[in-house]
Design goal:
By secondary structure, the protein is an alpha+beta fold. The chain folds into two domains: 106 residues, Peroxidase, domain 1 (Orthogonal Bundle); 71 residues. It is 62% helix and 15% strand. The protein is built from eight helices and four strands, in the order ααααααβαβββα. Helix 1 packs antiparallel against helix 2 and helix 4 runs antiparallel to helix 5. The longest helix has 23 residues.
Length: 183
């Protein structure tokens, strides 16, 4: 818990600096997409995560890896930012920095993140219905969906927006029914 708080404290100014660079170059969305891609890559590849987080691997090797991951055609500002993190020995905080950048980008765009858990993958129409429901609840301009599939729900969805949870799952309905019957 304490390490998460420390990581958040370190990540905040770096994420703000990255957003400032992105705004000055009018690249906020492009860097946001690159950040999402990089976060996805890190979550799927434990070797890369361990390589970046290992303090015993020399900075030159980490810079070479960043150079291979981010070719010349990729965003030079993000690549240079990552190299700066290596120089400052803050690359270990890459995930919290990128996550915080996305939080700041959502605030800038008046976008909310809705975590949707469903029993089966949602169709495009169902995703749009969830977006409309979340916009009605939060008064946000846009909704970014993060979807997960959980077969234990039996049916329906659970939508989490910030600290608010809407449980429209069959499992949740059965649990509420059971509580009413036990009273």
């Amino acid at each position: 818990m304490t390490s998460q708080v420390a990581a958040a404290e370190i990540a905040q100014p770096y994420a703000q600096a990255l957003l400032s660079i992105a705004q000055s170059k009018n690249l906020t969305e492009e860097i946001g997409e690159d950040a999402r891609t990089l976060l996805s890559l890190l979550s799927e590849n434990n070797q890369l995560q361990n390589f970046i987080g290992n303090p015993f691997i020399q900075s030159e090797n980490k810079k070479a890896a960043i150079g291979r991951i981010f070719s010349e055609s990729s965003n030079p500002y993000l690549r240079n930012f990552l190299l700066l993190l290596v120089d400052r020995r803050r690359i270990v905080f890459l995930e919290p920095i990128l996550q915080q950048y996305l939080v700041l980008l959502r605030q800038l765009n008046q976008t909310v993140l809705a975590e949707v858990t469903s029993a089966v993958p949602l169709t495009e129409g169902q995703e749009q219905a969830v977006r409309e429901k979340v916009i009605a609840i939060t008064n946000a301009r846009q909704v970014e969906l993060e979807t997960k599939v959980d077969g234990e729900l039996i049916g329906g969805v659970i939508i989490k927006v910030g600290s608010q949870v809407i449980d429209a799952s069959l499992r949740g309905q059965l649990r509420r029914l059971s509580l009413r019957l036990n009273q």
